[in-house]
Design a protein that fits this description.
- The chain has 43 helices and seven strands.
- The strands form two sheets. The chain has a four-stranded antiparallel β-sheet, with no helix packed on it. Strands 1-2-3 form a three-stranded antiparallel β-sheet.
- A hairpin with a 3-residue loop joins strand 1 and strand 2.
- The radius of gyration is 32 Å and the shape is globular.
- Helix 5 packs antiparallel against helix 6.
- It has about 950 residues and is mainly α.
Amino acid sequence: MSNKNDKKKTKAKRLGIKSILIHGDNRLAITTFGKGNNAEIALKSDTKGNEIKDKLPTKVGGGQVHKIAPDIDVKGRDYQGNKLDALLNNPAEHAGEDYLKLKSQLEKEFFGQEFPNDNIRIQIIHNILDIQKILGLYIADIIYCVNNLQDSPEDIVGLAMNEKTVNINLGKMLPYLGFFGNVFQTLPKIAANLRENVGKLKELEEQLKSKSTPQFKQANLRLDIDNLKKEKNISKDDIKKYETYCNNTEIVDKHNKSVLRLLGACRQCTAHFKGENSIFFLGNQNIKETLKNKYSKTDWDIIEQSYTKRTESINKTFLNHSKVNLRILFGIFDNVEKDKIIEEYFRFAILKEGKNLGLNMTYLRETILDEYLKQIKESKKFDSCRSKIYCIIDYILYRQLHDTDELNNMVAKLRVTQDSEEKEILYKSFAQTAWEQTQRYILPFYERFLGNSYPAFNSGSLNTQLDKRLQKIIVSDIPFVQILAFLCNFLEGKEINELLSAYIHKFENIQSFIDTLQGLGETVKFTPSYELFNGNDNELAKKIAKQLRFIISIGKMKGDLSEAKRPLFKTAIRMLGIEKLDIEQDEEKFNTWLEENVLTGDPSKKKDCNPFRNFIAKQVIESRRFIYLVKYTKPQTVRTLMQNGHIVRYVLTRLPETQIDKYYERIENGKEKKLSEKIDVLTNKLSSLSFQLLVDNKGKIKDASKRPGKQNVELEKLKGLVGLYLTVAFVAIKNLVKTNARYYIAFAAFDRDFHLFEEKLKNDPDFKQKIGKYDNYFAITEYFLNNDDKKKYIPDPSLSDEENKKALFKFLDSRENKQHFTKKWNEILRNNISAAKEIHETGLLLTSARNNVAHLNVLTMLPKYVGDFKKGNKQPMTSYFELYHYVLQRLMTSPDSLNEIPKLQSFGEMLQKYNAPNNDLMKLMFVSFAYNLSRYKNLTIEALFDEDSETGKELTVKWKQKEDEKKKKKNN
């Protein structure tokens, strides 16, 4: 369990402290970690330590509070009995407005009033804001993928939002609909789905009508027809639909338009803080009615149908995979009601409740096996059933240990540990206790497997029984959950897991703070715009988190791409590059060449199939990296990006050294070179790779089956090269998408802040004047700059110099007189705003950048500009931030964009001259963000953009060194 990258826990966390909260009339509470994400109130006091209810010192997790004020002193011991002390800041010392002075405005927005001596509600607010922010990223990416696969110059999601647009033809996207589950419809797919039930019914009815059917069979046919209608719920409407769908495309177009319109509604909701769509998710609980009234009833029907299909799919998966396990568990726990076992096992297997106990159950099981059942891990006898044995043992451990004093004590001890080595000692100790609690269940089960005597279980009627029981567990009546399930159609397994895991964490945090406030005697009431969180006695957040654990189970589902074979082959070959064949631009010639050279023979028969058909299928099309690239880029984008040696070399330098060694050995059969030399060799090979390497002089695909042994070695090298090619392209594109995400979040935050300041300063004549004539994007920053001017100390002529000096220091120390910006940044920002206004008075640069970010235009236009990046420049690429901004700035200064402005033209000329981003332009583009100075710095200074990454750390060190040198020169 040892990990070199272990982050040391804070002393507060080791002592069990979760939060230090202030509320009400200067009251203080300390909470400790409870079960899962829950918080338990351990101490109530005022902010100076005077007793309210509990006597001091009060036990807090692993320690005791000895005093409060000015700081909080907690003393305790670690799991080995050594002294452990923590001195914590008292939040009362920092209470009040935040850096932007928006706390009170946010509290009025969400709760209808200000809470000046409260730091709990603002934490609830920021968790809710994160919900909107997180979803916005995913929706923007989904819409980009839809438009990218459609290969449309227009935003088809935007077109679908326009009621004047009658039909939305999915066109080129049809082969890729498998990427999006079954949410889109095609005529053949609908007919096929209905044919299975309605078609079978019609077939039986025709047999019944047939004069050749014997009379004794007619009674059986009638019975079969009645049973089929009853079992499959076939109505007259279904029969009518079947006949209509087989002959009418209008219904399909209407359905697909509704799907796209739903995506557009989601985008509107997350892109704007206020407006008619902004409370679409977080507003009232009548989301469904809102949708029906704004668009059409069929839109919400699609969401409900999608949710039902997904829940049925999870049910079916659970039933198919758990029948045998349940039969085994019925035998192990023969004195427990089967219904209880079924529900508990479902919660364990599907809702993953075993992962929320405060310790790693998998590691505990592994420790027990090492100590008591080593044969299971080592003997080949268990190879075919090891995963099943592990699953049963995990459930037994979960069932017998959760909610026990032994487990709670173990979790408390684990919290006090500092690193993995200490945890390892505790797990070995706890394994003995756990084994004593569970061996009477595990041993009989294990011994039956050991003797090969476990029977093959017949599920019998278990499926029907399970289905009825599970329907009660998994049904969701929360529209927000159903919408998330709908959006999961458009995401891959990993994305689903990341999105819903983040949401589960946010909703559990919200519920924990609500519970804490209620435990402190406070009333929690949200404004109508956020009444979603008022539901069910303030426990709706908890219910949502619980149901999202169920939805996350769909993460492993894969789309069906059987209809995309030909387009994927064409994309794969174009991605690798076939320019020397001189056919890429001619679609008809390309199709002919593809048929004659690649798609020859039967892929199911190796002898008849062209080996390079299998090569492309196995090495490219079946790669997860390739699928990602198909969704986010065009083949030509990958091709042009990979031809730029600066980018390829940079990505290779970011890969682990072991990975470089592995690829180099496979491609070059050698280890003797230095790492930098290996990267140079691989860079040259990747940037010059093309499909031409796979064909002979006549342009025909080489037949690997006829090659002598040495040539087969070359084929293996080629597999390694293609694998690395896809890896480098995938890493580069994914990091550009991540970079775009940072700016997407920043623009969403700006939209929110602008609205809040507009509301807060509606009676401020200066601010109102600036935003009254036009949307002045500089207004917030200028407000703080001007406010700083008002806070300058004016000497009192009636006082002596010494007295004025003392008054000055007192003035500077006062919280009310703290300036928003330092003198240095005040000057820098005024100059930047002045320069930005020369380009456009209201902030055209920001609106242009925002539109490009929202539509991920950097990826769309990458082929046009990436070839010029660093061209003729001896300086290596330093970050993805650098590449992203070069393309973005080229896009913004292009002749068909903003280049009619003289000042911008000069920036465009510099970009083309140096083929690298312009730092001055970057600072002007985002100066509207400067009211939040840390955000502005992080988005405009390369070294700070991603300072937690390896690259960011390196750049940050260099940046700080340069800053120090500037200071020294200035001081000298």
